[in-house]
Amino acid sequence: MPTTSNLSDRAHAALLDRLRDGRLRSGTFLSMPVLVDLIGLPIAAMREAVKRAEASGLLTIVPKRGVAVMDAGPQTTRDCLELRTMFDCEGARRIIASGGAFPLAALRETHHQLLAEARADPACDLQQRAIRTDLSLHDALARGLDSPLAARLYGENRDRIAVIQNTRPFVPDRIAPAMEEHLAILDAIEARDSIRADAAIRYHLRETLRWWGV
What we know:
Elements: H1 4-20, E1 29-30, H2 32-39, H3 43-55, E2 59-62, E3 66-69, H4 74-98, H5 104-120, H6 127-143, H7 148-167, H8 172-190, H9 194-211
Antiparallel strand pairs: 1-3, 2-3
Helix pairs in contact: 1-3, 4-6, 4-7, 4-9, 5-6, 5-8, 6-8, 8-9
């Protein structure tokens, strides 16, 4: 029989899945009974899962009413992307300084492939692949921090950005410029130029905020 802890972990994982894939969108309000029916796990486990999600900034508990999914408004969007940029810049600096393992060739290949497709026909079906490709670089830069605490904080922010992305879609016309910006970051890392990498990462932030109108 599953323990209370196991049930809470399952409830938390199921809740995160629904937040990441957009089934629970920014601004959604749910009562606890509705959330229990949606996830299909006991209310005690759901309460613990909701507390963990609130601690990560994904939900807000409204006493005696239920829970609200995080706001994905301009200020939250800017805060989350600026935090990711801090992780990116420090991760790139450490990768360049240490010469540690970094999947440069694989990242370059997937980015060039998506860029070619986006230039030929930026169809809507590229959007999910574009999000995965976008995340692949940010995840790789975060791993360069080589810190369990930083990994946890990055992961929590990654989940918040997933909620934002489901509210502010990766529009087809943004795919090619975003891939070009990522390739500039990869070029700087290959050249072992930390100043250039930092500038390329911050340019990517400014352009992302501009495209999202933030």
